[in-house]
Structures are given as C-alpha cells and as structure tokens.
Amino acid sequence: MGFKCGIVGLPNVGKSTLFNALTQTAAAQAANYPFCTIEPNVGEVAVPEPRLDALAKIAGSKEIIPARMNFVDIAGLVKGASQGEGLGNKFLANIRECDAVIYVCRCFEDGDVTHVAGRIDPLADLEIVETELMLADLESLEKRRANVEKKAKSGDKEAKETLALLDVAKAELDAGRPARRAKIADDQRKAFDMLQLLTGKPVLYVCNVDEGSAAEGNALSRHVAERAAAEGAQSVVISAKIEAEVAVLPPEERAEFLGAMGLSEPGLNRLIRAGYALLGLQTYFTAGPKEARAWTIHKGDTAPQAAGVIHTDFEKGFIRAETISYEDYVKHNGEVGAKEAGRMRLEGKEYVVQDGDVMHFRFNA
Questions:
Q1: Which of 50, 101, 129, 325 has fewest C-beta within 10 Å?
Q2: Measured CA distances, 135 to 53, 124, 177, 359 (Å)
Q3: For 186-232, how does the pLDDT look when each residue is reduced to its tens digit (9 = 90+)?
Q4: CA distance 1 to 165
Q5: Residue 310 DSSP SS3
Q6: Interacting residues of 147 by C-beta distance below 8 A, sequence separation 6+
Q7: Other CB atoms closer than 10 Å to residue 339's CB: what's the count?
Q8: Could you give the count of Cα atoms lying within 13 Å of 80 in the half-sphere of its Cβ?
Q9: Comparing C-alpha atoms, which of 309, 286, 256, 303 is closest to residue 1?
Q10: pLDDT digits over 272-303, tens only?
C-alpha cells in the first residue's frame, strides 16, 4: 500500500532541498531560480521504525524491510498558476494524484536566496498557493457539473449524491475556504474524496527555518503553527539545510551532528510521524527467520484488510490471524515464548488491527 505526499509551495522556499534530504538523493535539482524542478520527482522513503529492529533481532531475521512512503517534489506554483501562469496546470494535475499535500513555508531570511515576491511572509505565500488551488478546484467543479446534472435528472442515484457533494464543495470555495473545511458525513467521505479536489486533501504545514531555529522554531514558524492550529491541521519545524547535511553524513556521525544542533532526531522522523497521523495510518509487523517487515494500514482496518496489504489472496481466503502485541513479543522473547505465556491470540474477520501487532495469517489458497 503506497501513500504519496506532494511537496508544494512557491519557488525557492526549500521544497527540492527538503526532498533531496528526505530521499537522500540528488534527483531533484535544488537551484536558486524558479521552476528548477521541471518534472515531478518521486522518492520512496523508508519509515523510521525502531520496533522493527528489535523484532528482527529476536526473530533472527536475515532481512529487515521497513514500510515506505512516497514524496513527490512538485515544481513551485506562482500567482496565476490556475490560469496557466508559470508552469501552470500541469503541476496542479501532479498534486491531484497525491494522498496528502505538504505545504513548505519559507520561514527564514537569506539574501542569497531570492524570493519570488521579494519579501518573506509565509502566511502570504500560503494564501497565494491555496488561492490557486481553490481556483483550480472551482474550474474542475464547473467542468464536471453539467454531466453530473444530466445523469441526476435521469434518476441516477449516485449522480444525485455526487451533485450534492459538488454543491457542498462549491459553497466552501465560494466562501474563500478550501474544500477540506466542508463538513462531510462519514458515510459520504469516500465519495467526497473521489471528487479529487486539490484543496480537499489533508494538509501538513512544514516550516523551513534557518539552522539556528531548527530546535525551537522562530517568529515566522510560530505564525504558521497558529494558522495550522486554527484549522485543526499540524505543522512541523524543519531546517531543510540541516536535513540535507545530515543526509550525506555517515550514519555513525549523524547523532553527534544533530546533538550539536540541539536536535534529538532528523526532521524526517517528525515529518513521517506527522504524515502518518495526517493520513490516519498505523503499522503492523510480520517477523520470522527470513525477514522482519513493517506494513502500513489505516487505523480501523480489520485483520482481513491488513492481510490484503500483503496479497489480495490473503484477504479473500482469510481464516484467522495469529496475533501478538509488540510489547508481548518483546517481553516473552518472540513467538514461541509469547505462545507459551498465553499471549498469542487467534483473531477472526472482525478483529480491528492495533498499531504494533505482530501477525501471522492463515488463509485458504
């Protein structure tokens, strides 16, 4: 199960620098001029998971396979992008393919890095980006409306429901609010998400600060944090410059370098955790002599749904799941010890998987 987060913002706010650091590659060219990212770069990032190492050690696993998350470096938007300015609608389409949007906000002063608007104001930057996305959403709704109305008039029940959701989304956008602010019933959430509105996607604000502000943030990042809190979103403070330096250091030197900066872990870890929370994700594990592996599922997924992440046949032929909590697996030194202590459970189709469960599935081929 792959999850894709689009990194979005104005030119020269640090998107590509952050992407390079996250993926530990130089795939996205970071340069001091707009539109240096001509094609969206996609990078797979291993999800930091210390529990996986502990499980592998106990199980004697030959291989450790972490869960992964995709990050997409999308070229900088500019005012008028919804009308084709800059590199225009091509990049709006790239955002549409993502599960969530990461707004990178420039919260640092640097005379050597040109700001496209000639000033440093992350809230104003956010307004430009979000306005362009809202305008693009309004255009998308208008294009879809005629066809949906036609089907609804013919009695198509699904079209009627879609038309109602289009009206709800348009009302928010007409009021100058992103579509994600709309109050949608739980049983309509899937249909609403199918509208693929740019501003309907969950948002995470990343405050890109100077090196000296990496630990505590600064006045600019606090303004962004206040905005995020006001709309029930999350914000993360990161120095893309520090992350880029950490990415090229040998693993054994990273902790010392981060400690000197007043940091206990890379910004990637915080960003991943925030991304998981944003998308309502959690992790379960499989562990054995061959491999220890982390699997990503949604909170609330049942045992068959979790099995289906490994292979669709596992979900179709699901019989039961032999389940041990991570804490019990470690406490009793593995599967055998947990089973002897009565800590292995046989869970059926209705079981809701918990974060950290260590599972083995039985199924009919």
A1: 50
A2: 46, 17, 11, 46
A3: 899 989 998 989 999 999 999 999 999 999 999 999 999 999 999 88
A4: 27
A5: helix
A6: none
A7: 14
A8: 4
A9: 309
A10: 888 888 889 999 999 999 999 999 999 999 99
Question: What pLDDT is stored for residue 47 in this prediction?
Answer: 85
pLDDT one-digit tens code per residue, 53-97: 999 999 999 999 999 888 888 866 656 544 554 444 566 777 888
Which residues lie closer than 8 Å to 313 by C-beta, 6 or more apart? 363, 365
Nearest residue to 244 via CA among 34, 6, 19 = 19
Q: How far apart are CA 34 and CA 76, in angstroms?
A: 7
The pLDDT assigned to 236 comes to: 94
End-to-end C-alpha distance for the chain, whole angstroms: 21
Cβ atoms of residues 168 and 145 within 8 Å: no
6, β-bridge pairs: 72, 101
Are 131 and 35 spatial neighbours (Cβ–Cβ below 8 Å)?
no
Sheet containing 358-363, strands listed edge to edge, beginning at the edge strand earlier in sequence: 63-65, 291-298, 281-287, 358-363, 318-324, 345-347
Cα separations (Å) of 47 from 10, 67, 204, 239? 27, 5, 17, 19
Tokens of 276: 């998981």
CA atoms within 13 A on the CB side of 130: 24
- Paired tokens of 61: 């696993």
253 or 110: which carries more pLDDT confidence?
253
Closest by alpha carbon to 229, among 205, 194, 252, 260?
205
One-letter amino acid of 178: P
Contact 322, 316 (CB under 8 A): no
Q: Which residues pair with 345 in a beta bridge?
A: 323
pTM confidence score:
0.82
Q: Which residues contact 246 (CB under 8 A, 6 or more apart)?
A: 21, 254, 257, 258, 266
In angstroms, the CA 26 to CA 14 distance is 14
Q: How much of the chain exceeds pLDDT 90, in percent?
A: 55
